[in-house]
Amino acid sequence: MKFLPLVLANLGRHKRRTVLTIVSVALALFLFAALRSVITTLDETARFGAANRMVVQNAMGIVFPLPMSYASRLQATQGVQAVTWANWFGGRYGDGKRFFATFAVDPQSYFAMYPEMQVPEDQKQAFFRDRGSCIVGRHLLEVFGWKVGQNVTMQGTIFPGDWTFTIVGAYVPTSKVIGEDALIFQYANLDERLNHQVTPGWYVLRITDPALAPDVARRIDDGYRNSSAPTKTGTEQAFQAGFVTMWGNVQFLMNSIGMAVVFAILLVTANAMMMAARERTSEIAVLKTIGFTDRTLFLLVMVEAGCIADAGALLGLGGAKALFASGNINVGGFLPGFTVTNGTVLIGVALTLVLALASGAIPALRAARLPVVQALRKVE
Amino acid sequence: MKIPLAYNVRSVLQRPVSTAMTALGVAIVVAVFIAMLALANGFRVALVRTGSPDNVLVLRRGADSELSSGIDRETERIIAASPHVATGSDGRALISPEVFVAINIHRGSDTLSMANVVARGVSDEAFTVRRNIVITEGRKFVSGRSEIIVGQRLVGRIGHTALGDTLRFAGRDWLVVGHFSAGGSSFESEIWGENEQFMPVFRGDVFQSVSFRLKDPRGFEEAKRSLENDQRIQVDAHRETEFYDSQSELLTRILNILAYLITSIMAVGAVFGAVNTMYAAVAARTPEVAVLLTLGFRPRSVLASFLVESAVIALVGGLIGCLFALPINGIVTSTTNWNSFTEVAFAFRVTPGLLLSGVIFALVMGVLGGFFPALRASRLPVVQAIR
């Protein structure tokens, strides 16, 4: 501890170099944290899903609908407690540049199925009453400057024409994984306008016991195997995970870039430490002469490297955590719930240690092993 | 007078480790830069190549993708009768009314993981309308049979795609009779069969899109006007290349933004590294610089000399970065085209243009990193420095 002023004095000698190196480390760890958070957020999305909810979709693919008649049969299936259904609307608002998800849902059963969707009771009732109404995510209200009570008109891409909905409320999700920018409207509205030619895109079930999931899935899928619309039933989690895998190998991409960044900065830091130690060759020799042990000198250089890495880590990891905690960055609606997890911070801290050790080791060893006589001879 | 480059080279060789580290830092940044842009580029090229400039793609009015479109037979007949459609050597109209669906297929031997794949039902003329289709193995499907051909990028990625295998979807067994390539376009990630076979098993009596060859390659605007103003039908006509390009827009934009964001942050780190190195170089060579100035070299020459030194280190780094990035060219990866909701396999594309921009990027980093240290060297007070 008593050597702290010495370390600080050494750091302060080339202030510009110290600051530049710290900022480099900070940027590297910031990037690392951001990239890793993409992975953890996707993982979180893939893990989302209540254990007692299952999704029934057409076995041919998500774009094929299921008959409406399945609702009552699904409800009657042993182990199934509740059923709701929904349809992907896929509309476009304005120039279509800002995409958001739009679903047609069966109002009562939908909100009963998803307690995560928090809507004030009076707004919920208004939504149930008015067939032409819609509920939107709170964030979407802010994005477009919409007000509750106003009409919004969307262009249907799957279902042609202009569709006007009255916003009667806004939902706030309790889970960050449910995006705050979706628009939901009544399935009955869609059904009516298309002369009952539309059928549900998928069903969501609540089962009495999560352990029953495999049985329920088998029972349903076996029952429809030879029908014109065979089903594929799985847990909500599996359904979500399926979507995440559609992005492709994001994990590998992010990890490789993250590693490249950290390695590049390791070079910068190591270089800075080596330059610092080289310049001080004669000083170190003097210190040795006045009785500093090899061990102390080794530690002094290591602590200096550690200080730079730690200051950088504090700035970089802290900055990432603070910036993304504000929660408004969800990468254009693609990554709802984008946050830097504590796990990421911990890995960042571990990386910092590695960075300090790797960048300080060679100069520190060199300092410890410095032959005093030779080094002093260089002093002019 | 210019200071000879040999001076810089010899000086650089005096501190090989530090120089190598700086160059390597730049190399990594450049490699990441090129790799990420190669990814975006590969995806875009795969989609753009899907279209031909003299082909027209007709969708239902308002539909933004083939998936959400629907064209009935009556509309198809009206389009086929249009005078803008080219005719083949046999006198038949070069038009392909197509069924387009996304189906769920097991990935390889893995029974749990599913892939969304495009199944496209085409007419016999499709192979003439779409010029880049080449049957690489086997043969075309025969009209009236449950036969399919599989794009070569899908072969091996999903199960049961070898010649002679049967692939089961839509409640029927389909015999794989051929594999095809399509010039690296996203067609290579599709399964093709006859439209009349696909239509009844998927979405009933409706096509999703109609593609035709223009009789006059420059007549697109006129064809578009005549089709969209036809009171009997409700369609949008797109130039095929532009349509598929717009499908790639969103993801390409995300990838490009990511590439620039990540590499510019990385570049700041690398520039700082270069700044440190160059300042140390200037400090170590202070007496030398003083001698140069005394000998009559202009401060401008000293500035230029150090700038060139920094730029050369970065240039070497940039070239190494290009070498790092080259092997990823051609690596096939896949992602989802969110417009069609299906998987597209594509290859990273490292182009000479990308390599050049990587090298320029490196040079910029070198000049930025070297400027202030070089400025300091040129302004050294001679008397003090030489003491």
Structure description:
The complex is a heterodimer of chains A (380) and B (387). Chain A is α+β, with helices and mostly antiparallel strands. Chain A contains 14 helices and eleven strands. In chain A, strands 1, 2, 3, 4, 5, 6, 7, 8, 9, 10 and 11 form an eleven-stranded mixed sheet that branches. In chain A, helix 1 (4-13) crosses helix 12 (294-325). Chain B is 48% helix and 20% strand. Chain B has eleven helices and twelve strands. Chain B has helices spanning 5-14, 16-48, 73-80, 126-129, 195-201, 220-228, 240-284, 286-294, 299-325, 352-378, 382-386, and strands at residues 55-60, 95-106, 114-122, 134-138, 147-151, 166-169, 172-181, 190-194, 209-213, 235-239, 332-337, 342-347. In chain B, helix 2 packs antiparallel against helix 7 (240-284) and helix 2 crosses helix 9 (299-325). Chain B starts with a helix and ends with a helix. The mean pLDDT of chain B is 88.
List its traits.
heterodimer, A: 380 residues, alpha+beta, 14 helices, 11 strands, 17% strand, elongated, B: 387 residues, ten-stranded mixed beta sheet, 11 helices, 12 strands, 48% helix
Structural class given helices, strands, pairing of chain B?
alpha+beta
Distance between the termini of chain A: 32 Å
Low-confidence stretches of chain A: none
Contiguous low-pLDDT stretches of chain B (5 residues minimum) are none
| N to C succession of SSEs of chain B | HHEHEEHEEEEEHEHEHHHEEHH
Number of domains of chain B: 2
| Amino- and carboxy-terminal Cα gap of chain B | 25 Å
Find the count of extended strands of chain B (DSSP E, 2+ residues).
12
Helix % of chain B is 40-55%
Largest interface: A-B, 54 and 55 residues
Tell me how many strands of chain A there are.
Answer: 11
Please compute the radius of gyration of chain B using only Cα atoms: 29 Å
Percent of residues in beta strands of chain A: 15-25%
* Quaternary structure annotation: heterodimer
Number of helices of chain A: 14
Q: Given the C-alpha coordinates, what overall shape of chain A results?
A: elongated
Share in helix of chain A: 40-55%
